[in-house]
Amino acid sequence: MLIDLHMHTSRCGHAEGCPAEYVSAARAAGLDIIAFTDHLALPDGYDPDGEYAMRPHELPEYVAEVQAAARGSSAPRVFLGIEADWVPGHVPDTARALAAHPFDVVLGSVHFLQEWAFDDPARIDGWSLRDVAGAWEEYFSTLVDAASSGLFDVMAHPDLVKKFGHVPPGDLSSLFDDVAGALADAGVAVEVSSAGLRKPCAELYPSDGLLAAFRRAGVPATTSSDAHTPAEVGAGLDEARSALRRAGYESIVYFEAREMREVPLWE
Ligand code: ZN
Ligand code: FE
Ligand code: FE
Ligand code: ZN
């Protein structure tokens, strides 16, 4: 089963293509299951240029558009998802938006440390002010808080903090085991995303080391491209699936009405 549980449309302000184009691309790539996961609107002040996410009033329209695409496609099966940011001061707003629509899957993302959009190339100067090890610590403790919030089904790009190649020296295995244990306790899944292959870090999110820790802790995993153009749908799924196999995974998951469904990895 080829599953791509993370893709965006032009609605978010930094991607191209409409749902119908993504569905055609997914069909051409032979995918079995896809989910649309456009970026949920951010709280006031977090997206001043409208480049990170849809506007709040667009959510019903987005939902209707994806539902129409889903009705029109049996292969691939199309699910209604959303990628929601973890913004600690705004949990009730996020919860309300997520409860207002019948999402199949909610991806949880940490794109901000305090107000710093650390993965935005336009904000890369922030890295020169930071100690890499400190940023990693803050990132992963934020990820654990997000996972533990109960808002999310899948933690997206779980080691996004490495995007521009900032990785602290030394052995990270105890950090990875702590994070994996916390995500297991939180009952969330993680995605293995090929997006990192297309970024300066040039490796999957998560790294092999972190994925192995997830496997040891029993954290379920899914696969995704985080496509921002129709041409990227299904990109790198082979690499993601190979990484899962290397880490010892035998199954992957997808979500329907926010219920986890498990399928064999090699089928
Ligand atoms: Zn995006
Ligand atoms: Fe993201
Ligand atoms: Fe995304
Ligand atoms: Zn993403």
Give a written overview of the molecule.
Helices cover 31% and strands 16% of the residues. The protein has helices at 19-28, 59-71, 91-99, 132-148, 173-186, 208-217, 237-246; strands at 3-4, 33-36, 77-85, 105-109, 154-155, 189-193, 221-224, 251-256, 259-264. The strands form two sheets. The protein has a seven-stranded parallel β-sheet with strand order 1-2-3-4-5-6-7. A two-stranded antiparallel ribbon has the order 8-9. Bound molecules: zinc ion (2 copies) and fe (iii) ion (2 copies). One zinc ion (ZN) binds next to loops.
- Can you give the helix content as a percent range? 25-40%
Ligand names: zinc ion, fe (iii) ion
Ends distance: 6 Å
| Rg over C-alpha atoms, rounded to the nearest angstrom | 17 Å
Shape: globular
Order of helices and strands: EHEHEHEHEHEHEHEE
Strand content: 15-25%
Task: Give the mean pLDDT.
Answer: 97
Tally of helical runs = 7
Low-pLDDT segments: none
> What is the count of β-strands?
9
Q: Assign the structural class, choosing from mainly alpha, mainly beta, alpha/beta, alpha+beta, or little secondary structure.
A: alpha/beta
